[in-house]
Amino acid sequence: MHIVADENIPLVDAFFSDLGRITRLPGRRIDGHALQDADVLLVRSVTPVAAATLAGTPVRFVGTCTIGTDHLDLAGLAAAGIKTASAPGCNARGVVEYVLSCLLVLSERTGRDWRKLTVGVVGVGEVGGRLVATLEALDVHVLRCDPPRAEQAEQGFVSLDELIDQADVISLHVPLEVTGRHATRHLLDTARLDRLRPGAWLINSSRGPVVDNLALRQVLEARGDLQVVLDVWEHEPDVDIDLAVRCVLATPHIAGYSLDGKLRGTEQIYRELCSFLGRSADKTLAELSPSQGVGTLLLDSATPPEWVVAKALRYVYDVRDDDARFRSMLVAATGVTQRKEGFDRLRKEYPLRRECQWLAVGLADADGQPGTGTRTGQCERMLKAAGFSGARRHDLRG
Ligand SMILES: NC(=O)C1=CN([C@@H]2O[C@H](COP(=O)(O)OP(=O)(O)OC[C@H]3O[C@@H](n4cnc5c(N)ncnc54)[C@H](O)[C@@H]3O)[C@@H](O)[C@H]2O)C=CC1
Ligand SMILES: O=C(O)C(=O)[C@H](O)COP(=O)(O)O
Question: Where is the Erythronate-4-phosphate dehydrogenase dimerisation domain positioned along the sequence (predicted)?
Answer without folding.
Answer: 299-364
